[in-house]
Amino acid sequence: QVQLVDSGGGSVQIGGSLRVSCVLSGRTFSMTSMGWFRQAPGKEREFVAAQDWMTGRTYYADSVEGRFTISRDNAKNTVYLQMNSLKPEDTAAYYCAASRQREYLRDGARYDYWGQGTQVTVSS
After folding, report:
1. Which residues pair with 92 in a beta bridge?
2. Going along the chain, which residue ranges are E strands?
3. In contact, 2 and 98? CB cutoff 8 Å
4. CA 76, CA 3: separation in Å to the nearest integer?
5. Phi/psi of residue 28, each to 5°?
6. Contact between residue 105 and residue 116 where contact means Cβ atoms under 8 Å apart
């Protein structure tokens, strides 16, 4: 089993920055990729970013490319999502997820474990 705990969400003004974190524990050695997804009220969950831990390659949704950065701190067993130039449409609950796979990381069905989510609200 792997446990994921999301944190770091909050309220921020348009154009501001925020970093959300995801701490992993348990049998993390079996995981090969991490991703971030988000879900706004009344909308379906959508892919935000992912990283292949074997190669370091990153993937981003078009809507966040150039503004968001996924990264990992091995010593702290933590994955981060740095969000800059935030927009109102970025408002959502953000969820980290861990996968044993390295392909099709934009598909939430590829992930085995999920965090509980952390709310990000962007307003003027």
Report:
1. 120
2. 2-7, 10-13, 18-26, 33-39, 46-52, 58-60, 68-73, 78-83, 92-99, 113-114, 118-123
3. yes
4. 14
5. -70, -15
6. no
> Which residue type is seen at 49?
A
Tally Cβ neighbours within 10 Å of residue 37: 23
Quick one: which of 118, 112, 99 has its CA closest to 39? Answer: 118
Q: Hey, what are 18's tokens?
A: 């925020």
Q: Quote the tokens at residue 60.
A: 């981003």
- Best CA proximity match to 101, nearest among 31, 25, 35: 31
Residue 30: predicted pLDDT = 85
**What tens-digit pLDDT sequence spans the chain (124 residues)?**
999 999 999 999 999 999 999 999 998 888 899 999 999 999 999 999 999 999 999 999 999 999 999 999 989 999 999 999 999 999 999 999 999 999 999 999 999 999 999 999 999 8
Classified as helix, coil or strand, 102 is: coil
Q: 52 and 103 in contact (C-beta within 8 Å)?
A: no
Phi and psi at residue 11, in whole multiples of 5°?
Answer: -105, 140
